[in-house]
Amino acid sequence: MIKDILDIKVTRAVESKLPQVDWENLPFGKVFSDHMLVMDYKDGAWQTPEVLPFTNLSLHPAVSVIHYGQSIFEGLKANRTESGDIFLFRPDMNGRRLQESCERMCMPEIPVDLFVECTRKLVEVDQNWIPNKKGYSLYIRPIIFATDEYIGIRPSETYKFMIFTCPVGAYYSEPVNVKIEEYYTRAAAGGVGRAKTAGNYAASLYPAKLAQEQGYHQLIWTDASTHEYIEESGTMNIMFQIGGKLITPSEDSDTILRGITKRSVIELVQSWGIEVEERKVSVKEIVEAARSGKLEDAFGIGTAATIAHIAKMGYRDEVFHLKPLEERPISNSIKETLNDIKLGIKPDTLNWCLKV
Ligand code: PLP
Ligand code: COI
């Protein structure tokens, strides 16, 4: 195991910021733990990672990430179980997805076991930052960005890999209102939609802002060429329930982020004997099901969002109000079971959690 051969150097923060944290009022992504992990790429190789006190960076104005956007990120969570163990949820999958993003963005890949060990080490160092509160976790944000000081366009020859963490509650504090978007596009075939790259999120801001002005939290993206098929939501994958079956857009196209939560939900409900269809999902069938009262449930799925029930779905001039939460037994069970597995309350029969 890499853990036995790589002893990551740790320089501890002189003073912890923990006493300043208001645990009763934790805004998502604004409170940062005491340390960060840093690993540089230069001379064709990743250098030795190090854990350092969390601090600002100093960057040259010509650093290429700022200009041309070679920047990718990941998101995963750590939780403390009732018996005091610390669990990371499927970090190997984040490591593999980071590699896929690296390949698409011409960035150097990090071996999955090295990625996992870097994550494990940082969480071990900042374990006191894991919230002890139901629905709360330590959100872990790995990033890689280009650091060449050069304004010509080519893949950078130097990069920085960093991980930092934030104690958080759920990204959405209430069920979400979403609008089916038929003009703007998140990702086109052949583009970078499958990569977890910064530009995808930058491109989504303006259409999301327009939807927010109409009272929605997020968009449901449709395919770029016809806008007839549903893809995913802004920060999460999406799932519908019709006739007792769960239906979700397949990841065959390279326009949808391959969600780790979604994969886990599919594996979980299949183990319960519930049928899941991963296929093209047309806007028409979802809208018709909503019109005729056959849409039993719709929810977003993601690391930050966890399971975000959809309360209201907008389509052109129509607004569909979905069932009250207490009438959505499948998604409620999914949410509770995922949470219980992460907290060690239910057994991790599918072997998802890595003990720190
Ligand atoms: N789709 C997008 C665009 C996302 O940003 C996310 C969040 O990571 C997801 C889907 C869900 O992916 P995961 O479950 O791996 O967090
Ligand atoms: C995550 O769920 O980890 C995400 O990346 C969503 C984020 C954009 C807040």
Please indicate the count of domains. Answer: 2
Radius of gyration, whole Å: 21 Å
Mean pLDDT: 95
- The percentage of residues in β strands lies in 25-35%
Largest sheet: 10 strands, mixed
Any idea of the CATH class of the largest domain?
Answer: Alpha Beta
Task: Indicate the structural class.
Answer: alpha+beta
Molecular shape? globular
The SSE order reads HEEEEHEEEHHEEEHEEEEHEHEEEHE
Topology diagram in text:
Blueprint: H1 2-5, E1 9-10, E2 35-42, E3 45-46, E4 50-53, H2 64-68, E5 71-73, E6 76-80, E7 86-89, H3 91-104, H4 112-125, E8 137-146, E9 159-168, E10 176-180, H5 198-213, E11 218-222, E12 230-233, E13 237-242, E14 245-249, H6 260-271, E15 276-279, H7 283-291, E16 295-302, E17 306-315, E18 318-321, H8 329-342, E19 353-355
Parallel strand pairs: 1-4, 10-11, 10-17, 14-15
Antiparallel strand pairs: 2-3, 2-4, 2-9, 5-8, 6-7, 6-8, 7-19, 8-9, 11-12, 13-14, 13-16, 16-17, 17-18
Bound molecules: pyridoxal-5'-phosphate (PLP) and 2-OXO-4-methylpentanoic acid (COI).
